Input
Amino acid sequence: MEPFSPLGWSPADLADPYPIYRRYREADPVHRAGPGTWFVFDHEHVAQTLSRRDFGRNRPAHLPGRNDALYRSVRDWLVFLDPPRHTRLRRLLAAEFSPKVVAGLRPRIASIVASLLRPLWGREEFDLVREFAAPLPVLVISALLGVPGERHAWFRERAEWLQEASSARAARASGGLARASGGLARAETAAGELTEYFDEQVRARRAAPRDDLVSLLAAAPGLTGDEITATCVHLLTAGHETTTNLLGKSVLHLSARPDLARTLRQEPALVPSAVGELVRFDAPVQMITRWATEAQELGDRKIAAGDKVVLVLGSANRDPARFTAPDRIVVDRDTSRHCGFGMGIHYCLGAQLARAEAELALPPLLELLRGFGVSGARYAEDLVFHGPAALTLRAIGTA
Ligand code: HEM
Output
């Protein structure tokens, strides 16, 4: 098969990569795309890689000699750490993202949802991503961290710039989407500005602690100042574009399936499992990366130490060996083995929070779809963080 690369994909393929994934999953599930670079398309080998310790997350040698703000921040991000540092930081943060903490946040999330959606009813046409799907996660994580919500547009822009870095790197590695250009420079600026901002917040909380996550991190024993700041920056960005994409894609899919929208309006108890199914069906994070820490086998392929292994979560979630009729949305299916939130030790820390946001947003969004129809969608040119960059809704009955 020709080496997998999204270079030159049409907008239609970027919006719906699943037929292309299927070809690779069927013919060459552990696929060598170039020297030292692999893409894994099937559920079995994606799950296996995520449970093995000989595939790591961190690759210090990856950025030799770097000391810029972006590198100094991401090197301390939970998602890029291996045990034992990962274990220590994860344990500390897990308590703050527990089901109990998230349950306590639900009224706050519901009120943010309502306040963002209310003004939209009076409009003839609007971009749902800009007005709702993008601000919601930033406002929620700002509330949790304890930083002022008015900054949300500033945070959002910087979170987007930072996320462009990982997309840009992945894009370059797989042939280079247009987004690679300029992305790293903007990410560098964002890392510098956010680090400065959170350094200041941490200093303020040390002087006068409050009841928020920044105060908790500032007081945590054993964390360095750099780790605290990097964790704040990481949390701000990790839950941002991911949740935005889940919300945008959910609206797109439900507007195309009025029968499903109707079912969920009539049976709101199905909303939580529908959210899981939407993450499975069209994963907001399509790909994650691991590095082989030693020479090993994956299926019948020989992976060399240091090789890069890209796990195509979006493809694994559509694997018919794991899910019956994987290309159909089945709102009450058992999605417990989907890997849209990852698997293993790096399983998404914010999965409960993201689910709560989507569960609280879906019912009012389904109401909105009674008065508005999707009149346009433009996908971001990105196969890592995957979803519509713009989603135009127009009042039904207006030209
Ligand atoms: C990790 C997806 C929302 C924080 C991950 C991973 C995935 C993922 C696939 C695993 C990365 C890997 O193993 O390389 C998603 C999706 C979301 C979402 C699809 C929304 C629909 C959130 C939210 C937060 C968050 C709201 C928090 C504010 C994190 C963190 C990690 C992570 C901190 C790293 C965990 C670790 O390394 O132990 N997420 N995420 N995510 N996510 Fe999420």
In short: Residues 180-207 form the longest helix (28 residues). Residues 11-58+67-395 form a domain with the Cytochrome p450 fold (CATH 1.10.630.10).
